[in-house]
Structures are given as structure tokens and as C-alpha cells.
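Q: Joint fold for the lines below.
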Amino acid sequence: MSLFDRLFERNGKKLKSEDRRRLLRSTVAAGLFTGLAMLGFIPVVRRWRERLRPPGALVEHEFLAACIKCGQCVQVCPVKAIHLADIDEGYGIGTPYIDARKQGCDFSCDAVQCVLACPTGALSHDISTKDQVRMGVARLAGPDRCLARQGRGFKGVARADDSTILHRYMSVNRWKPIELAEHPYDLELCDLCVRECPIEGAITLEKLTGEPDDKRKTPVVHQSCVGCGFCETICPAQPAAIVVDARAVWPGQHGA
Amino acid sequence: MSRLLDNLAIMLGRAPRKPTVLTPAAQAEFARQNSKEGKADRKRRIAEEREQNYRSHFWRNWRWISIIVINLLFVLSYRADVQLVEGALTASRFVGFHMADVNSALQVMLAYKHVVINLLIGTATVVFIWWLVGGRSFCAWACPYHLLGEWAEMLHLRLAVRGLVKDHALHRGARTVLYAIFAALAFATGYTVFEVISPVGILSRAFTYGASLALIWVGVLLLIEVFYSRRFWCRYICPIGMTYGFVGSAAPITVTYSLANCLHEGKCRDVCMVPHVLEMTKIGYADDVRINIGADCTRCGMCVEVCPTKALTFDIKGLNKLL
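A: Joint structure:
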């Protein structure tokens, strides 16, 4: 007697054909749904997207395991920097990420609210101040586009192409981030990435040459950079001259 | 105790069995029903109730309101800054207190392999609440997919009556197998594998945070339910339902069956999403005169509404003794 004959036998009687079809359907459905759920591996393993995660995110595989996909971090962010990933990110579905060009984190909540909101510690509760955060590292990706390196200033509204961007200006309102349009600039030499960087000393402008009349400068990223991405948000070059590499770390440092 | 184990086994997929031992009261009741007068009485009562054509949507209306209000609270808490229940159905804060969906928390703990205190507190709270109101009452009274599933079912039944579609039943053990598979996958891979296909999480997040591509998947599931298999997801797949089934297996709030009132017409089993819990309504299947409905029951109240003779009613265990 074959395995299937035994499998489809009950109480010594052959199952009726309807019962057999039902069992077959059930097996196919269980296999299908397991298979569909396993498709979630592909975007994760193939690293279709390297997402910039909110402050305090654990290393990526632990982060994906620990995140309960509830979006409480989204709700507390005062600049609405955090979004939830869609089903095309596989097991990353419902996990929070930051699109630095659209809206980086500027720590205008002061006390890493997203970390405090996280119920599972996927955003690690070991983080309590902004300088402990390690989301990535900023990098001058397009030096040719950088206004400071061309010796150019900046006048007007930063990122006029996107009116939704918010930023907290301590000099305007300590408690409420405002739209960039409400805060135009008039800068002799563009230093937006340095000026609006929420971490003191993470980026500095250094002279490009030793020549005294050469007013060209270049942004230099230092080890205190936490990778919040606000320099990428505010950069007036199109596309941004300075970008943040998600999850990047300085040699010898750990991400967090 | 044996009743509880029996109910759990039925929830896991075992077919209900005809009891061999009946209580004296049940024997007496069956004897009455099988007597000449009993049969005549049943015939008369059936004719009577068919004439009255009793119909009620009392519980359904309250249930729909409950599902809508619960999910609306999540949305308004964020969108209108009401701040009452922040988060999604997977995890939230209710006026500051942690709440976590039991199944989502299980997936996270299996994948992450850490005991997260906040999650444990949130899960315990939710377990207590849903134990109190009956475990799978989460499905019928809170789950947004259940509501969509109900509408899909109505459509399915209308089409089925006209012979346009046919219900393809599955073996209920499929859900048990999938439950084990998803738990094992979460543990082995370190990813919350089930969340990718969970329409509950997808819907809850979409309501609060905006539409997503994932809604297409929910649409596919609903199409399966309309055209292929009645209540496919809730009956044969969803591990969330099974988790809450365990939670509510010994819940105080139940639907109770009264043999004396039953005319054995089977109307309740026709409307029920989990008709295997109503097996005792068949002639000769009740081993007692009063039986609490098993663990898989969602307390949706459809059987209560459809029963013309109040053989099925909502009950709070022990309340009669207390009063």
C-alpha cells in the first residue's frame, strides 16, 4: 500500500473523493501561503533598499525581528520624518524608515521621542541623547554640486521644491518646527549643512585651498556625525551634494 | 477539563465526535424529544417559528459599531490628535498603557529571542482583556479584516444561492499546520514572517498611516473569499484567530446552548463562521442540557440572532450562581 493510500484512508475506509480533494486543497493552500510569506525574504536578502532607520535602531536583522510594526515612532516625530515601509520590502513591511532627502531627523524633539515610543526596543532604549545615535554617516557625494566649494552663497528659501519640509529653529520657536519657507536665508557662502546640523561639530566648513583670496570652502564630516540626514534634507543642490549613507559606520565604531 | 481539551482539539482541526456518554438530564431530554408527544411538539414549534420568520441583527449591529469605533479610535488618535490609542492593532498605547497583539508579540519574541518587558506587560494586558470577553471575540468585535470578510461572505452567499460560485471547504487542520509553520519560521529565520501576509496589520496600518501597496494583498484575499472559499482567511489560515482562541478557551463570556429549547433545525450552523463549535445542535450530539460553546467561537452572536427559540444565548459563566 503506498503512502498516499494510507494517508487517504480513515477507519479502514477510503475517503470519499470530496474529502480527498479537500485535503489536497488544504495542502496546496498551506504550501501557497507559506511560500507567499517566504517571498518576504527576497527584498531583505537581496538588499533592495538600504533604509535609513530612526534613531536607536538595532542592527538591521535584529531591528526587523524586534519591530512590531505599529508605527508609534511615526506618531511622535515632530517633523514627520518617519514613514512605514510597504509590502515590497518583504519582512521590512510596516517598519519605520527615514527618507533623508524628503525629511531628515533634526532632533527637534530633543529627547529621541521615537526611541521612547518604541514598545519593543527595536529602537534601542540604550539611547537617551541625540549624540549617542548612530544611524549612518554623511558623505559629500557630489562635491561638484556643492555651492560652498564653488564659492557661492545662498539666497531665498531652502528646498523650495518641497514645501512640506519642517525644521526647528531655536531662534524662532524652541518648541515648534516650522516650514522652511517661513525661514528664508541670505548667505554669502552657503553653509546650510553646517548651520542646520543638529549635532555640534559633526560637519565643519574648511577652506578648500591655502590661498587667502580663495573663499571656496568644503564641508568636512567628523566622527561625531550621527547620520540623522538633515544635511541631505537642507542641501540646496539638486540632487543633494551631501548625502547620508544609511547604517555606515566609521572604522572602529558601532552603529546604534 | 476534558470538555476544554475536547474544545481545543476541535479548534486545532479534529472533527467533532458524537458523544457516547450522556448526562442523565440529557438522556431524559432526548427521551422527551423522541417521544410521540415530543416529536409532535417539535413539529408544531418548527411550523410556528417558520410562520413568524424571526429575524434580528441586534448583535451584528453592535458588533459592526464596535469594530468601526475601535479602529476609528486608532485613526483619530493620530490624525485628529485625540491620543487615546496610539499605534496600530499590532501594538499600541491606550492612554499611555502598553497594549500588544498577542500573536504579533509572539512573532516578535520568537524572532528576536529576547524577553521585552514592555511587550510582556502589553501582551498580558491584552490577554486579560480578551480572556474576559472571550478570546476570539477579538475577531468578531475588533478585527477590521473580519468586517470586510463578513461583507465578502454576504456577497459569496448571494452568488452561491444563484449557483454562480461554490464554497470550497478546506481541512481546518490547515490553520494549525500554518500556525506551527509561522512560529517555526519566526524562530528559525529571525524575521516576523507572518506579518508580511497579515491583513490585520496591513489594514490597521493603512487606516492610520495611509494607503499602501499591501492593500492589494488584502483585496486578493477578499476575492478568494467571494469566489472560491467562504471565510477562507478566518477559517483556515489566520494564526491570530487561533492565538485568541487559546486565550479565550476558558473565558467567562460565552455563548451557551440549551438542549431543551433546541429544535435542531441547523439555522445556527448555516450562519456560523466556525460551525464545528455548534455540533451539539445536531440531534443526539449534545451530552448535556446546557453546554458552553467551544474555544473557536468568536462570540459574533449570529447564532444567537438566528435561533428562533433562544436555544443559543450569551452567558456569563457563574453569574447565575452568584445572583
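Q: Anything notable?
A: Chain A has two domains: 3-36, 47-246. Residues 76 and 114 of chain A are 6 Å apart (CA to CA).
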